[in-house]
Amino acid sequence: MRDSITNRRIGIVGGGNAGLICALILQQAFPQYQITVIKSDEIGTIGVGEGSTEHWRSFINYVGIEPSELIVAALATHKKGIFFEGWSDTCPDYFHATAGLPEGAPFVMGFNVAYAKMLSEGLLLTDHTGQGGIRENKVPAINPHQSVNQFHFDTNELNDLLTTKARSRGVVFVEGIVLDVNVTDGWIKSVRVMGEEKNRVADFWIDASGFNRVLMSHLSDTKWNSFSEYLLTDSAIAFRTESDPNGEIRPYTRARALENGWAWEIPTQTARGNGYVYSSQFCSERQAVKEMENLLGLEIPSYR
Questions:
Q1: Which of 90, 98, 245, 275 lies deepest, with the highest CB count within 10 Å?
Q2: Torsion angle, alpha carbons of 46, 14, 39, 223, to 10
Q3: In the chain, what are the domains?
Q4: What is the pLDDT of residues 70-85, one digit of tens each?
Q5: Residue 217 three-state SS
Q6: Which of the 8 DSSP states describes residue 215?
Q7: Contact 13, 191 (CB under 8 A)
């Protein structure tokens, strides 16, 4: 590490959304640091619709991205909840609202009077809260973005937006595949990028290369910890379909239980991101594709 704490160099390997989010947060927190993202256009993003959690609103607020800008640039839509369909043989389908508590309901240390009353009367909470209209594809007419802390967006368009933001704020982008990683005494010192004569040096490295583990795979004290004993759904396919022909966009994510796992449907402004998370112990990839084709009533020409 160099002596001057105001002149650090941070290297990020991976130009997907995870790497770009990391770069923007670090640039906001440490504007005096030199932040470099090493990426390759040969390695694309997954390219299906994505849905955020509540932390996304905190992120865009922190780095100064307006919700309206996100919606325009990333073809984003509101995510007001998640609809769990067919997950139980004895209970009704469950709608998990993400946009807040019933209007005017007192809330003290995790105890909500209105919720407690409905539970005592055997009422399904999500049928009687202020978010009931969401299931009918409705959103608030006044300040519609204000109450939203989660979104659906097009992965590729979001990547373009985050890249543009990062470049405009001084983040350096290096195009190329990492060919080698120089590790000394357990620390990553530099990387060799295809097409460059000199190694890229940084004081701190972040591996945002996903399952490729470009940096992590060179560290001897790291290993893959499998949770297959607990997580039976270990495989997935992802693909896009056209938007609703009626022009409606659901303001929520669909999560449908299937024979060997569960399927998601994420609506953006121009398409729907779909996927099937399944167990390879009970289902092959071809069977998973066939099951989704039967569910949606269409042929899936390509998927990832």
A1: 275
A2: -110
A3: 9-72+152-218 (3.50.50.60), 84-147 (no CATH), 235-296 (no CATH)
A4: 999 999 998 888 999 9
A5: helix
A6: T
A7: yes
